[in-house]
């Protein structure tokens, strides 16, 4: 069983479109995260939710809107996609907030904006 | 100064070599430190946590130096399969929470 899953794995779209990425974890963890890894491989946190509550928002443009319908799911919606949004987006989860526990990452969603 | 800094490498070493990586962090109030490993086009996976007293897991040894604000990873008897990017993670305080902050990673290439 996959612990943290993301869909889709690949996403190719044009500038200006709106797209969503879904993430689910079956580990029973309370905290979930979205990260962006750019072409230079720098992995940067975007958001974190703890039990459906937003706890970290790292100055991400408001075109990005996370949604957590329950603690096992954290989706990412992106409006008006730009070329600079091309990256790999990783979802992760950990047992509790404040990241004192191991994070488990999903396989990533490779987004290409043309 | 960047929040978490790593030498990007690549470190190119022969099998059997010992190699060490350092990672420095800027916020002295940071808590919880980790080393993750990331293979090409894969997700990061935990290699080991870093404890104040230092810890060892087989060929891997991690250490924390709070006074100088760095963590280190030592790999002994390198294997071809150790080739990967090694990411350090530091949890820095911000607005009542701790934010996991990754270094840019150090690339290791182990050759025959």
Question: What does this protein structure show overall?
Answer:
Chain A is built from no helices and eleven strands. Helix content of chain A is 0%, strand content 55%. In chain A, 35% of the residues are buried. In chain A, strand 4 and strand 5 form a beta hairpin. Chain B has 112 residues and is an all-beta fold. Helix content of chain B is 0%, strand content 59%. Chain B contains no helices and eleven strands. In chain B, the strands form two sheets. In chain B, strands 2, 4, 5, 9, 10 and 11 form a six-stranded mixed beta sheet that branches. In chain B, a hairpin with a 4-residue loop joins strand 7 and strand 8. Chain B is globular and about 50 Å long. The N and C termini of chain B lie far apart (37 Å). The interface between A and B is medium-sized, with 22 and 22 residues.
**Rg measurement of chain B, Å:** 14 Å
What is the CA–CA distance across the termini of chain B? 37 Å
Q: DSSP helix count of chain A?
A: 0
| Unreliable spans of chain B | none
* Low-pLDDT segments of chain A: none
Mean pLDDT of chain A: 93
Total beta-strand segments of chain A? 11
Give the helix level of chain B as a range of percent. Answer: under 10%
Number of helices of chain B: 0
What is the global morphology of chain B? globular
Strand portion of chain B: over 45%
Main sheet overview of chain A: 7 strands, mixed
| N-C termini distance of chain A | 34 Å
Q: Write the H/E string of chain B, N to C.
A: EEEEEEEEEEE
pLDDT averaged over residues of chain B? 94
Shape of chain A: globular
Oligomer: heterodimer
Q: Largest interface, with Cβ-Cβ < 8 Å? A: A-B, 22 and 22 residues
């Amino acid at each position: 069983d996959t612990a943290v899953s993301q869909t889709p794995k690949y996403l190719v779209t044009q500038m200006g479109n709106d797209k969503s990425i879904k993430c689910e974890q079956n580990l029973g963890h309370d905290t979930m995260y979205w990260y962006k890894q750019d072409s230079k491989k720098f992995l940067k946190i975007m958001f974190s939710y703890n039990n459906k509550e937003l706890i970290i928002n790292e100055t991400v443009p408001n075109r990005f809107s996370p949604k957590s319908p329950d603690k096992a799911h954290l989706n990412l919606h992106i409006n008006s996609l730009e070329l600079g949004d091309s990256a790999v987006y990783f979802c992760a989860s950990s047992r509790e907030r404040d990241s004192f526990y191991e994070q488990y990452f999903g396989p990533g969603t490779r987004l290409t904006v043309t | 100064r960047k929040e978490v800094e790593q030498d990007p490498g690549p470190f190119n070493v022969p099998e059997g070599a010992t190699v060490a990586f350092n990672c420095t962090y800027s916020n002295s109030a940071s808590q919880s430190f980790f080393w993750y490993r990331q293979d090409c086009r894969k997700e990061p996976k935990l290699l080991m946590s870093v404890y104040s007293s230092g810890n060892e897991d087989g060929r891997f040894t991690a250490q924390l130096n709070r006074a100088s604000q760095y963590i280190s990873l030592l790999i002994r008897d390198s294997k071809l399969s150790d080739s990967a990017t090694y990411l350090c993670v530091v949890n820095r305080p911000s607005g009542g929470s701790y934010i996991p902050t990754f270094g840019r990673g150090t690339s290791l290439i182990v050759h025959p």
